[in-house]
Amino acid sequence: MSKDDKKEKAEEEVVHLRREIGLLPAACFIIGTVVGSGIFIAPKGVLINSGSVGLSLLVWALCGVLSLFGALCYAELGTSFTKSGGHYTYLLETLGPLPAFLRLWVEFLFIRPAVASYVSLAFGRYVVEPFFAPCAAPTVLIKLVSILGLTFVVAVNCWSVTWASRTQITLTFVKMFALVLIIVPGVIALAKGQTENFQNGFEVDSLTLDRLPLAFYNGLYAYGGWFYLNFVTEEVINPNRNIPLAIICSMVTVTVCYVLVNVAYYTMMTPAELLLSDAVAVTFANRAFEGLASVIPFLVALSCLGALNGGFFGSPRMLFVGAREGHWPPIFSMIHIRRHTPLPAVLLLYPLVVVMLITGEIYQLINFASFARWFFIALATLGMLIHRYRFPLHPRPFKVPLVIAVTFTVVCFFIVGLSLYSDPWNTGRSCALTLTGVPVYYVTVYRFRLPHRWRRIFNYCSMHLQILLEVTQQEVQTY
């Protein structure tokens, strides 16, 4: 065996997360995570709160622009700080360890399980309901199918980074096909002069200013997920080029598709019909093409599965990096010796999501999730501006214009402040649950001060768990 072969073999055997995500998988990762159940559910919420067809289309476009602004800020953060971990890493580098730990705490106790449960249930509902129409589907069966979909996604993400990436690319093309299937009949009908639903599109009689922000909330929920590529920075090939490119291409694509999908909805359905529908895409399919109506729920289900896969691919990397920084038990900073996946971090999420899915308290937790998510995104972009001011010479391969960064940060804090005003009960509880992480932070960071016996039991459990899962620490630095 030659010297080069030995070196190549040694590198292959070294345990670390590999750079396997190119430009196409990176763009598909963002599109596949953003386009979930939101575009098939949120149009109703946007229309109710905006009050008119024209204004609702404007809200969809502005939500896309705002999400693009946020994604561009995260492109700068992702190229300035080359570690994986997304929000957690940026808060740690700019504002310090406590805000970073609290972001980690709420992500794994509330945000990720709540969002994953919601998307899993949407998957289960769209798979099961067509078989029972027009009757209501059994709730137990919906939850069972939801858990099966969730289990498949967890298994793929435990098995291989490459397979998780390929699954995401496949499901992204499926969901883009679903969007095109909605857009084309709508545009054809519009070209034939079917424009009656757009006449007087900007009637402002039913608009109330206090409800308009809720329309943006619904729209922004459908665009959620543009920050997930930053969770896996260390696995992106040539991140300085591919992260900004993937973010810009994917968010422009999603915004154009979302606006066109809504135009298609309003071409084929009156605003009143859209408001009466619980599943807008299915109602549209029944109106546009009777023969293919049964295909749409199946495509929406696969779309939900893609969003779920993106979440499970990205979020565990935040926990992995947090454990590597000493803010979480070390077992979660380990990866499988052969599969090279962050197995313990992926597996921790699974029981949390299953419990939340079975209890069914999803919609209440989504309110918690929205407040905490937007508050910490606002903190991350504020931290970016502070870091830019304090360290002007820090290398920034991609630099977002100051006006975009300031606009996005101000709008985020405005959204958070408004939710405190419009829903003080749920927002207050969300604040309280976030603050429960403060004592946990001090116990975790100063665990060497815990009684010796406790530490010995903890180390014993960690060692046996490490042997059982066949995981170990990374052997090379990947950032």
UniProtKB/TrEMBL annotation:
Q: Say yes or no: keyword Transit peptide present.
A: no
| Keyword entries, A-Z | Membrane, Transmembrane, Transmembrane helix
List where in the cell it is found. Membrane
Q: Which InterPro entries match?
A: AA/rel_permease1, AminoAcid_Transporter
Q: Which Pfam families match?
A: AA_permease_2 (PF13520)
Q: Can you tell me where the transmembrane regions are?
A: 21-41, 53-75, 109-128, 140-161, 173-191, 211-231, 243-268, 288-308, 341-359, 365-386, 398-421, 427-448
Query: Which N-terminal stretch is annotated as signal sequence?
Result: none
Q: How does it sit in the membrane?
A: Multi-pass membrane protein
Enumerate the GO terms in the molecular function aspect. Answer: L-amino acid transmembrane transporter activity
Q: Name one GO cellular component term.
A: membrane
What PANTHER family does the entry give?
AMINO ACID TRANSPORTER (PTHR11785), CYSTINE_GLUTAMATE TRANSPORTER (PTHR11785:SF246)
For this entry, the protein name equals Si:ch73-352p4.8
Origin species: Sander lucioperca
